[in-house]
């Protein structure tokens, strides 16, 4: 596994559409491993293959999960998702506005309106066809990462350019901001 360089927004590759993965090969498995390591090192909650310079439809996400019985003081558990060829097949009519950030646009966040719930069809790491229903934060991360596969950045979806604002590096990790960095 290796930490890869994250492509920044001014690089044209991020605006290109990614190609489907034909088979989950050893190269794709290595890409997935590298993406997970890169995402965790950044740190972020999601990463799409174009963000590491590979125009393939592969996404990794690691989102916090909480149960009602979880102690608020302890570190939340996370769930790792690996999606190859993700295709959103259903978006709820209900939407939620929230701030988003992006590993490819470091130091900025902005308000984006997204569907509150999505259903995505994809291949898992073993190449099996799967469906995932996500709501709230998971739905937001799925939509953000699938956008990357189509050359779309969260800044293209801002509710208003006025909502884009700089943030101090590291404040997301200190819990000063409740935002998504993917």
Task: Describe what this molecule looks like in 3D.
The protein is an alpha+beta fold and 182 residues long. The chain has one domain (12-181): Peptide Deformylase. Helix content is 16%, strand content 35%. The strands form two sheets. A five-stranded antiparallel beta sheet has the order 1-2-3-6-7, sandwiched between helices. A four-stranded mixed beta sheet has the order 8-5-4-9.
Q: What sort of overall outline do the alpha carbons produce when their principal axes are compared?
A: globular
Number of distinct helices: 2
The average pLDDT is 92
Strand neighbour order, sheet with most strands: 1-2-3-6-7
CATH architecture: Alpha-Beta Complex
Helix content: 10-25%
Distance between the termini: 20 Å
List the helices and strands and how they pair.
Elements: H1 26-41, E1 46-48, E2 58-65, E3 77-91, E4 95-102, E5 105-115, E6 117-123, E7 129-135, H2 137-149, E8 165-166, E9 180-181
Quick tags:
single chain; 182 residues; alpha+beta; 5-stranded antiparallel beta sheet; 4-stranded mixed beta sheet
Describe the structure in brief:
This protein is an alpha+beta fold and 182 residues long.
């Amino acid at each position: 596994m290796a930490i890869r360089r994250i492509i920044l927004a001014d690089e044209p590759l991020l605006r290109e559409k990614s190609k489907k993965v034909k088979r989950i090969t050893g190269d794709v498995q290595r890409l997935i491993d590298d993406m997970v390591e890169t995402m965790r090192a950044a740190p972020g909650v999601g990463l799409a293959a174009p963000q590491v310079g590979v125009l393939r439809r592969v996404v990794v996400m690691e989102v916090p999960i909480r149960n009602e019985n979880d102690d608020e003081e302890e570190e939340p558990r996370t769930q790792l998702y690996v999606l190859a060829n993700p295709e959103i097949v259903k978006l709820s009519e209900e939407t939620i506005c929230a701030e988003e950030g992006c590993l490819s646009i470091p130091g900025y966040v902005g308000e984006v309106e997204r569907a509150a719930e999505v259903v995505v069809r994809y291949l898992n790491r073993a190449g099996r066809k799967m469906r995932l229903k996500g709501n709230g934060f998971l739905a937001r991360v799925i939509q953000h990462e699938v956008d990357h596969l189509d050359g779309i950045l969260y800044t293209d979806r801002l509710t208003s350019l006025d909502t884009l604002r700089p943030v101090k590096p590291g404040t997301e990790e200190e819990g000063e901001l409740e935002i998504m960095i993917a």
